[in-house]
Design a protein that fits this description.
Pathway: Lipid metabolism; Phospholipid metabolism; CDP-diacylglycerol biosynthesis; CDP-diacylglycerol from sn-glycerol 3-phosphate: step 3/3. With 279 residues, the chain is mainly alpha-helical. The protein is built from eleven helices and two strands, in the order H-H-H-H-H-H-H-E-E-H-H-H-H.
């Protein structure tokens, strides 16, 4: 357990620094990262659900769809990315309908595609986009760290014993308050403003992060796998590391669509920044 924890911490630090550097540069390098991340998530998803073995046509259609999605993400065409994700998910589900796994294979396109799209749209090419990324990182990472260590130290009632036996209500609650504190601190330091909207947004994103963690745990239990992959020491796969982040980013993306009234473009600012400035 100590070795696994050490690997987990080292992997988290290295990956965290790499992602922060890419987020700092933004632009094309970060969009390429988001596209590659989407591809890795989809690879792990298809491996988990045994897509190639169950439906070769759906497997091929899925990767063709992911190729288009990646192209649009890199090209900063978020509206086209959304269309490609929705069309691709439907096409994969139809192609896999004879296997009985159509909805699950189509869901993989949605999950992987929107993971990459939400992060790319969140960062955007503006200073507000960088603030938005820092804000979401702070909420998610503080939630993850506090939930893990407080849950282990305090124990108590299990949060979802049939899905993830190690998670507790104490960890979830302390994780949420840690996310609220970290996100609010970033907002105050960078935007020099407060308001009740910011801690509410932090709480929503913290809960979304924890739901993402539970969803990924549920998927692994459903398909009887310990980890989504083996790429990251101490964490398993890419999905194991970014499950909470992509759910929080997608929640921010949805909030942005409601506030902005449409798919964001690179000239109109970062979704999460709009959400922050709406308070």
């Amino acid at each position: 357990m100590q070795l696994e924890l050490k690997q987990r911490v080292v992997s988290a630090v290295i990956l965290g620094i790499a992602v922060l550097l890419l987020a700092w540069f933004g632009g094309l390098p970060f969009r390429i990262f988001c596209a590659i991340l989407a591809a890795l998530i989809y690879y792990e998803w298809t491996t988990m659900v045994q897509a190639e073995r169950r439906s070769r046509p759906a497997f091929l259609v899925g990767w063709a769809s992911m190729g288009a999605i990646m192209w649009f993400i890199v090209g900063n065409a978020f509206a086209y990315s959304t269309g490609a994700i929705l069309i691709g998910a439907g096409a994969v589900a139809l192609a896999a309908r004879t296997s009985g796994r159509g909805p699950w294979m189509g869901l993989g396109v949605l999950y992987a595609g929107f993971s990459g799209l939400a992060l790319a749209a969140l960062r955007d090419d503006t200073t507000l986009g960088l603030i938005g990324m820092a804000f979401v990182f702070a909420v998610v990472w503080a939630t993850d760290i506090l939930a893990y260590f407080c849950g282990r130290a305090l124990g108590g009632r299990k949060l979802a014993p049939k899905i993830s036996p190690g998670k507790t209500w104490s960890g979830a609650i302390f994780g949420m308050f840690g996310g609220i504190a970290a996100g609010t601190a970033v907002a105050l330091l960078t935007l020099d403003r407060g308001g009740i909207w910011i801690p509410i947004l932090c709480a929503v994103l913290s809960v979304a992060s924890q739901v993402g963690d539970l969803f990924e745990s549920w998927m692994k239990r459903r398909y009887a796998v310990k980890d989504s992959g083996r790429l990251i020491p101490g964490h398993g796969g890419v999905m194991d590391r970014v499950d909470g982040l992509v759910f929080a980013a997608f929640a921010a993306f949805l909030i942005a669509l409601v506030i902005a009234g449409g798919i964001p473009s690179s000239s109109s600012g970062s979704p999460i920044a709009w959400a922050l400035l709406g308070g």
